[in-house]
């Protein structure tokens, strides 16, 4: 009873963090590039994500119409930096491990709500859930930090000609995906800490 709020907080933070992780992974605006040549990139702004790069073009897609052109990254594009492919893998792992953490926490809360007083199953569920949350948070934090570093140092990417992208922008800034990812990582790490705290509290009380 004394740890009920902590248990619910662990689940709530884990759920919100997992949802934000999924949203961040799907967004294309990780890095916002500002370019001076608007012949193809009509708006002068391009969005570089971890899965694809997009920009608005009045010429390339449909002449005279405002259309968004996107080019998905391929594993064959050796010029794309490894941090992008690493971010793809780490965020997929984060999404899966975050979901496993939620599942373990649900089982633990179920045992408590049904007043199952066997110490080992409850403590193990909280321990496993906490581990998955923390691991998921780290898998989000690494690529988000790496991309934020690339933005602050205005690092370039040697895109292939088929991408219609310059190799370097005039300036770039962090897109919405980066702060969302940072919040997701913080919530998942907090959820893992709370889950482990629940585990030790349950062990002490039982």
TrEMBL record:
One of its GO terms (molecular function) is structural molecule activity. Keywords: Cell junction, Cell membrane, Membrane, Tight junction, Transmembrane, Transmembrane helix. Its main location: other. It is a multi-pass membrane protein. The keyword Membrane applies. Signal peptide: none annotated. One of its GO terms (cellular component) is bicellular tight junction. InterPro entries: Claudin (IPR006187), PMP22/EMP/MP20/Claudin (IPR004031). The keyword Hydrolase does not apply. Pfam families: Claudin_2 (PF13903). It comes from the Eukaryota. This is CLD34 protein. It comes from Odontophorus gujanensis (marbled wood quail). The gene is Cldn34.
């Amino acid at each position: 009873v004394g740890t009920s709020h902590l248990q619910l907080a662990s689940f709530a933070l884990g759920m919100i963090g997992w949802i934000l992780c999924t949203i961040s992974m799907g967004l294309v605006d990780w890095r916002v590039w500002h370019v001076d040549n608007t012949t193809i990139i009509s708006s002068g702004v391009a969005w570089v994500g971890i899965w694809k790069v997009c920009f608005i073009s009045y010429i390339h897609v449909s002449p005279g119409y405002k259309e968004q052109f996107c080019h998905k990254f391929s594993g064959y594009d050796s010029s794309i930096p490894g941090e992008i492919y690493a971010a793809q893998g780490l965020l997929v792992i984060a999404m899966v491990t975050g979901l496993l953490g939620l599942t373990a926490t649900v089982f633990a809360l179920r045992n408590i709500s049904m007043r199952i007083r066997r110490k080992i199953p409850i403590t193990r569920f909280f321990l496993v859930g906490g581990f998955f949350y923390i691991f998921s948070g780290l898998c989000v934090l690494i690529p988000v930090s790496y991309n934020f570093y690339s933005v602050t140092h205005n690092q370039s990417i040697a895109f292939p000609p088929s991408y219609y992208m310059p190799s370097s922008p005039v300036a770039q800034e962090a897109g919405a995906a980066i702060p969302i990812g940072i919040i997701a990582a913080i919530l998942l790490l907090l959820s893992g800490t709370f889950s482990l705290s629940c585990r030790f509290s349950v062990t002490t009380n039982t």
